[in-house]
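Annotated sample (chain length 171).
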Amino acid sequence: MTHVYSFKDANLQNPSFVTIGVFDGLHTGHQTLIKHLVKKAHAEDKLAVVITFFPHPDKVLRDVDERYYLMTPDQRAKLILDMGIDCVVTHAFDETIRQMRASDFVDELTNHLKLYELWVEIFYLMRMSYFHIVHTHPGQSAHPHKSSNAVEGKYHPHDLPVQCFTIPLIS
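Output written by the structure step:
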């Protein structure tokens, strides 16, 4: 179990199930998502990875200067690792990440985290236009396919080759 501060530092050797979020506070929904991700990843002999950001994306996206946190990145990573996650990546959320094309972001995940499956909340997908791939396996394209409804570099969730699933909040 490890905590790193960039995708490049992770450099995983085995395929991974990945989820992305700020995860500040680790409420019941976060815990349920992580629990299911760990269970499914480990059942398939894959790694379970959490990507979190610091500073909070609102700082870059909405120019929020006064951002408070419930815990430090190290405290957050420790709690997440204690839940069975194999690797926590606390990546800087900066203008470079903001401007990165979706396909380049997925390439980073694939190259450094050996992305096998990406789990994100559908609401997260709809409000964050730069995270798009939910499900990918070797042999499938990791990049979204544009449809007539897609705008260059931005994809609506309905335009994506995704596998949808729901995780019950009570288990």
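Annotation: Residues 28-43 form the longest helix (16 residues).
Annotation: The beta strands are 2-4, 16-20, 47-53, 87-91, 115-119.
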